[in-house]
Amino acid sequence: MTGFQLFKRRLVQDVQEQMKPVRAILDWSVLLYIVVPFMIVFPFFYIDAWENVHLYWGREVPFIFLAGLLLLVAGRGNIRTYVWEADLIYLLQKKRLLWELKQYGFLFSLLSAVLRNLIIFLLPYPF
User: What are phi and psi of 83, to 5 degrees?
Assistant: First the structure.
């Protein structure tokens, strides 16, 4: 088994674990009555917000508030190594496998943070 194969397995397990509470909350009725109407109505509010900026945004909002808000959003994150406590006994003997797993976890964490920040920063721009 290579480090990449172990990383893929851990990533799939992690996503499955994180999706359990989401599936418990978002059953078909919630999707039908809340999420789908929101997805239909949101583009209209988005367009209206850009056509009538003066209604949604005040001129007295200081720049430092915006910079602080952006730093708060962009600075949120963590680095996942996908190393479990039980693995340490086995992986300490296989230094290369442990190193590869940490390396792929760091790269995935970095790419997901970059993607998340791009979405956050590009979402407000009109296209």
Answer: -105, 125
Q: CA 93 to CA 91: how far, in whole Å?
A: 5
Residue 2 CB neighbour total at 10 angstroms: 12
Copy the structure tokens of residue 4: 């990449």
Please classify residue 106 by burial: count the beta carbons closer than 10 Å to its beta carbon, then call 0-12 exposed, 13-18 middle and 19+ buried: middle
CB atoms within 10 A of CB 91: 19
Mean pLDDT of 1-14: 93
Q: What is the DSSP letter of 27?
A: -
Instruction: Kindly state the DSSP code that residue 92 receives in the 8-state scheme.
Output: T
Q: Using CA atoms in the order 66, 68, 70, 75, what is the torsion angle rounded to 10 degrees?
A: 180
Indicate the pLDDT class of residue 46, thresholds 50, 70 and 90. Answer: confident
For residue 59, give the DSSP letter.
T
List the chain domain ranges: 3-122
Query: What predicted TM-score, i.e. pTM, was given to this entire model?
Result: 0.71
